[in-house]
């Protein structure tokens, strides 16, 4: 028996029907989109349709495209709400050994058409989407604090029963005393958020320092200040400052960590950039979509997000078992194992190696179990 498309479709559908409240017909279309995106590495429907076998539709390429278009344009489906249902179930499958969890949030764009606010879970050197909200590029208020608050409240509710030690990481576009207070006082989470150099600051015993830019960084070493007063609101927090060798800009990181670990923790923020690359030109080519229809793009992003979760779980599984030697995930360098493919590349390679291969020899896991990496 082989991992043909009909088998993969059936197994994937059985898993997702327990995670997403969709009718059987709509679930068939979702699974078809996920498989098509993974195999074709694009969101262009004509290329996806070419990869879909008779198990999806015995019709022509044109009829397959129209069927997918109707699914993606269906206004009665709320993909962002469906993704919340999915994440509730997905996090039940997360296996953490450290009990520490890092959530990175940032905005990304699809050219100059759409803006996406996304919260992601750091997994190894990648990040997985936990919650997102999409807007038109020039939509009024698309970067308002209320949207950030909405995402954080959802995640706080989802994670409340797990008792994780949560740290939030974000770039300077999210610097806000209102946000710092909300995280610290209401959510009771930790945060490391970069600030712009023009913010006013009061540091005890440093009367010459009026703004963050007045702080001179040490060469290749961080400076740490505790119980500083930030902005005219005199918000009390901690501050870490550093400038990497040959870097143009200095990092000013506001945080509420007890130890001087903010710089190390903040560096983990960059995993979300790798994920965005995987979504776009480095993987699924999201930016190749032609559509200006926001419902269509929301649905497309929903499909890509689930496809990405599936591939990352395969990549992690590959790194943990004997499959890594089959596709060359790791190599021995100076007596230690070093991963040479990202979790995303590993997952893609394993999926394609298994595709239409013997099931017993090349086993695909459809459980969506996520291990801390």
Automatic annotation (TrEMBL):
* Ranges in a coiled coil: none
SUPFAM superfamilies membership: Ribonuclease H-like (SSF53098)
Tell me where in this chain the Transposase IS4-like domain is found.
Answer: 143-288
* UniProt keyword annotations, A-Z: Membrane, Transmembrane, Transmembrane helix
Q: Which domain of life is it from?
A: Bacteria
Keyword Transmembrane helix assigned to the entry: answer is yes
Q: What is this protein called?
A: Transposase
Organism in which the protein naturally occurs: Clostridium taeniosporum
């Amino acid at each position: 028996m082989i991992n043909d498309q009909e088998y993969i479709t059936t197994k994937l559908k059985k898993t997702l029907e327990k995670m997403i409240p969709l009718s059987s017909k709509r679930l068939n279309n979702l699974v078809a989109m996920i498989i098509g995106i993974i195999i074709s590495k694009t969101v262009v429907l004509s290329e996806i349709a070419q990869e879909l076998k008779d198990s999806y539709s015995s019709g022509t390429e044109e009829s397959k495209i129209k069927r997918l278009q109707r699914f993606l344009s269906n206004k009665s489906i709320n993909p962002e709400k469906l993704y919340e249902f999915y994440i509730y179930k997905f996090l039940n499958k997360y296996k953490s050994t450290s009990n520490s969890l890092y959530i990175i949030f940032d905005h990304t764009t699809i050219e100059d058409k759409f803006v996406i606010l996304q919260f992601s879970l750091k997994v190894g050197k990648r990040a997985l989407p936990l919650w997102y909200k999409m807007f038109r590029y020039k939509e009024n208020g698309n970067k308002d604090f209320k949207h950030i608050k909405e995402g954080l409240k959802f995640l706080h509710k989802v994670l409340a029963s797990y008792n994780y030690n949560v740290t939030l990481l974000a770039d300077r576009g999210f610097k806000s005393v209102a946000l710092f207070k909300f995280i610290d006082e209401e959510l009771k989470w930790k945060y490391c958020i970069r600030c712009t150099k023009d913010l006013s600051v009061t540091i005890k015993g440093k009367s010459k320092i009026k703004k963050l830019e007045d702080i001179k960084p040490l060469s290749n070493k961080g400076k740490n200040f505790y119980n500083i007063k930030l902005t005219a609101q005199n918000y009390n927090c901690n501050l870490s400052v550093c400038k990497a060798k040959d870097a143009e800009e200095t990092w000013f990181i506001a945080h509420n960590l007890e130890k001087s670990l903010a710089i190390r923790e903040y560096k983990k923020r960059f995993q979300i950039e790798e994920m965005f690359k995987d979504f776009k030109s480095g993987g699924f080519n999201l930016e190749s979509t032609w559509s200006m229809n926001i419902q269509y793009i929301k649905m497309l992003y929903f499909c890509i997000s689930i496809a990405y979760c599936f591939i990352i779980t395969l990549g992690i599984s590959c790194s943990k078992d004997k499959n890594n030697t089959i596709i060359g995930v790791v190599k021995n360098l100076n007596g230690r194992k070093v991963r040479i493919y990202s979790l995303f590349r590993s997952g893609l390679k394993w999926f394609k190696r298994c595709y239409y291969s013997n099931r017993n020899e090349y086993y695909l896991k459809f459980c969506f179990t996520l291990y801390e990496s």
